[in-house]
Amino acid sequence: MAGIIAFAGYDGSVYLMGWTGGYVLLALCLAPYLRKFGKFTVPDFVGDRYYSQLARTIAVICAIVVSFTYIAGQMRGVGVVFSRFLEVDIATGVIIGMVIVFFYTVLGGMKGITYTQVAQYCVLAFAYIVPAIFISLLMTDHFLPQTGFGATVTDGSGQFLLERLDGLSQELGFAAYTEGARSKIDVFFITCALMVGTAGLPHVIVRFFTVPKVRDARRSAGWALLFISVVYLTAPAIAAFSKVNLFNTINGPEMTGVEYSQAPDWVKNWEKTGLIKWEDKNGDGKMFYSGDDRNEMTIDRDIMVLANPEIASLPAWVVALVAAGGIAAALSTSAGLLLVISTSVSHDLLKRTLMPNISDKQELFYARLAAAVAIVLSGYFGVNPPGFVAQVVAFAFGLAAASFFPAIILGIFHKRMNRAGAIAGMVVGITFTFAYIVYFKFISPELNTPDHWILGVSPEGIGTLGMILNFVVAFAVHKMTGDAPEDIQELVESIRYPKGAGVAHDH
Amino acid sequence: MAFQSAEHAKAYWRENLSLMLKLLVVWFVVSYGFGILLVDVLNQITFFGFKLGFWFAQQGSILTFVALIFIYVKRMAALDNKYQVHED
C-alpha cells in the first residue's frame, strides 16, 4: 500500500482517506443497526428487509463480484512476496501463493480465520512500523516516522524532506510529490468510492454482526479504525522515505545515474522476479529513473513496501519481518473473502434458492469448489493484473459502493423504501460500474484517459457515480410502486434502538 | 415497544440523526474539504514542515476519523440511557 503512495504522492491520499474514512460511515450509519437486526450476512439483511428472494440473490451476486475483484488484487500481493523470497518470476510466485491460500482457507474455516486475524494484524503492524522507525532515524533523526517525514534531512542541508522530494520529482519529470497529477473531481470521486465501499464490503461488515451488543458494534468500529490508523499513519511516511531513497540509489546523489555494474543488491534481486527491468537506452552503462523519456527503468509499484527496507540497507531480519507481515496480511484478507464467496455460493445461492434439497455434505463440497474456482480465476488476474494491487482493490470498493451501500442505507433510514426500488437500484448501480471498469480496462484500454471519462472520473472513482445512480433509481422506482408493507416498516423501526438485541443468530 | 411513548421514540431518533449529521459534517469538511477541495489554499501554509493541505490529506483526516467514532460511541451511550433503550 505504501507503494502506491510512493508512486502517487498526494494522489495516494485517496487510498489513505478512503480506507479509513469508511469506518466512520460504518460506525455511524451501519454497524449498530445491522447488529440489532441480527443476521450474519449482507444478503440476509437485504433479502429480509426487502422481503424478496430476488433481492437476496442480487445481493449474493454483488457480494461474489466484489469479493472476487478484491481477491484478485490480493493474489498479486502474495505473488510478489513469494517471487522475491524464492527468487522465482512473478507467475510462479502467484501460483505458490494460490496453493497456500487454498489450503489455508479450505482447511482452516471461519473460526480459525477470526482468531488468527488478531495475531496477524499484530505481526503486520510490527512489520510495518519497525522498519519505518529505522528509516526515519536514519534519514531525519526523528523517532516517529509521522513527524519524521515532515522534518529536515540529516545531510546538513537544512532542507525539509518533502521539499527535497518535490524538487527531485519535478527535476526528473514527475508531478510534485505533495501536489499530484489527478484532477480534483477525480480525487473526490475515488475517495468517496473507497470510503463508501469500505462501509459496504461484505467481509468487513460481517465482523460487526458477531459482537455481543449493539454498543459493542459501535465501539468495535472505533477500535478497528484505531488499530488500522497506526498502519495508515505510517504508510505515507514510509512512502516519502522510500521515494527519496529510490531516487538516490538509482540515480545517485548527483542525479546523473549509477553504473549498472555497481547496482545495489536490491536491484539485482528484484530483477530476478521480472518486477524491475533496466534497459540501457542511451548506452552509457548507467541506470536512470525519471518520469520523462530519459527513463531507463521499469519498476513495478507493488514491490515498494517490500523493497523499501532493502533499499535503505536495513538488516536482513527487518526485511524478513516485512515479508512475514505482508504474507500475513494478504493471507488473512484473502481467506476472509474466499469464505464470503464460498458461503455465498453454497449457502445463499444454492441452498436457499437453486437447490434447497442438497445435504450438508454437498453444501460443503460446493463451498470448496467455489473457493477453488475463485482462487484459480484470481490467480490468473494476479499474473496478468489489469492494474497494480491497490487499483484492482479500488475496483472492488467501487463495486461495493455502487451496489450494497445504498440498499443498506435506505433499508435503515428510509423505512418506506420498497422491494422494487432496492432491486432496481442495485442492478443499475453494479451494472453501470462494472461495465465502465470493464470497458476502460479490458475492451478499450487505449481510451483510458481523462478525455474519454464521464465527467473526468477514472474507473477507480466511478463507483461513486454508480452509487448516485443507485440512489436516484431507487427513489424513482419507489415513487412509482408505493410503500413497503406495514410489518417491514415496523421491523425497520425496531432496529433503530439497541434495546432487545438478542444473540446474533444463524439462518 | 421499548420506548415509553411514541413521542419518545421520535425524539430519540431525531437526536440520533442530528448527532450523526453533525459528526458527518465534520467528517466531510476535514477529508473532502481540507484534504481535497481546499488543498491548494491550505498548501500555502506550512505546518511543521508539511504543507497543511497535504498534511490533512495524509495524517489529519485519519486522526479526526478516530476521534469522531469515539465521540459518537460516547454520545450514543448517553442517549440510550436517557431514553431507557440501552441493553442490560
TrEMBL record, chain A:
Family assignment from sequence similarity: Belongs to the sodium:solute symporter (SSF) (TC 2.A.21) family.
Source organism of this protein record: Idiomarina xiamenensis 10-D-4
Membrane topology: Multi-pass membrane protein
Name assigned to this protein: SSF family Na(+)/solute symporter
A family per Pfam: SSF
Main location: membrane
Single GO molecular function: symporter activity
Localization in the cell: Membrane
The keyword Transmembrane helix appears for this protein: yes
Transmembrane annotation, as ranges: 12-34, 54-73, 85-106, 118-139, 187-209, 221-241, 314-343, 364-382, 388-413, 420-440, 452-477
Assigned GO CC terms: plasma membrane
Keyword presence, Methyltransferase: no
Record's keyword terms, sorted: Membrane, Symport, Transmembrane, Transmembrane helix, Transport
TrEMBL record, chain B:
InterPro entries: Na_symporter_ssu (IPR019886)
Keyword hit for Hydrolase: no
Ranges annotated as spanning the membrane: 21-42, 54-73
Alphabetical keyword list: Membrane, Transmembrane, Transmembrane helix
Protein name: Sodium symporter small subunit domain-containing protein
Domain Sodium symporter small subunit: 9-86
